Amino acid sequence: MRKTDPIKQQERRLHILEAAAHCFAEHGFHATSTAQICKRAAMSPGNLFHYYASKADIIEALIASDTDDIRSRMRAAGAAPDACQALREWVDGQLALYRDPAFVRLGMEVLAEAVRNPRVHALVMANEAERKTGLLTLLAAVWKGREAPRPLAQMADTLLLLLDGVYSRSVVDPAFGAEAAASLLDQALERSLPPATAPRDPAPRRGQAAKGRA
């Protein structure tokens, strides 16, 4: 009997999830058929169903995979030698994601499904909890050995609220530019970093990054 290769199995699962994410962002969860996912992934229905029993399983796996990615990225950021720089880079990374139309569309599909589907709602809540926990850990590293001017949870909530606001504005107001978002977030960062490490003028850097990604 041929042995299964766990690495190849995981690669195929991720390949299916990437194909599904593309289809969901383009057509929406409910309008996407498994045939479209199979075509995008270049595999047969039988092969796809070997890894995921249904489209609902794929949706749930996408959210769980994103949660794993968040956990991994936040752990790496928390272990970085310069926690302040790691926080800045994390914020920049979030802004970069929100400038990706496919990411924004997929995120809106996930949120809409979470309203209807209790299982998806639970996964989204776990995803958000992981994001906030990771940010709190990173802020704790930033303020290690110093007295923070306000509770770290309040700092985390402020940053997350602003990021979520940028995300929402990118959906309803295409004219809302990256420079405006960066300016608001820079102000929040200045209040979340020790005075000696607060960003002096990072907005042009973020604006340039936005132009480079466009």
Description:
The chain has 214 residues and is an all-alpha fold. The chain has a domain at 56-192: Tetracycline Repressor, domain 2 (Orthogonal Bundle), CATH 1.10.357. 76% of the residues lie in helices and 0% in strands. Helix 6 packs across helix 7 (118-142) and helix 8 (152-172) runs antiparallel to helix 9 (178-190). The protein is globular and about 60 Å long. 25% of the residues are buried.
User: What is the highest CATH level, the class of one domain?
Assistant: Mainly Alpha
Give average pLDDT, whole number. 86
Rounded to an integer, what's the Rg over CA atoms? 19 Å
Instruction: Please summarize the sheet with the most strands.
Output: none
For the record, the CATH architecture of one domain stands as Orthogonal Bundle
Q: What helical percentage do the residues reach? A: over 70%
Indicate the proportion of strand residues.
under 5%
Highlighted features:
214 residues, Tetracycline Repressor, domain 2, 0% strand
How would the blueprint of this fold be written?
Elements: H1 6-27, H2 34-41, H3 45-51, H4 55-78, H5 83-98, H6 101-116, H7 118-142, H8 152-172, H9 178-190, H10 203-213
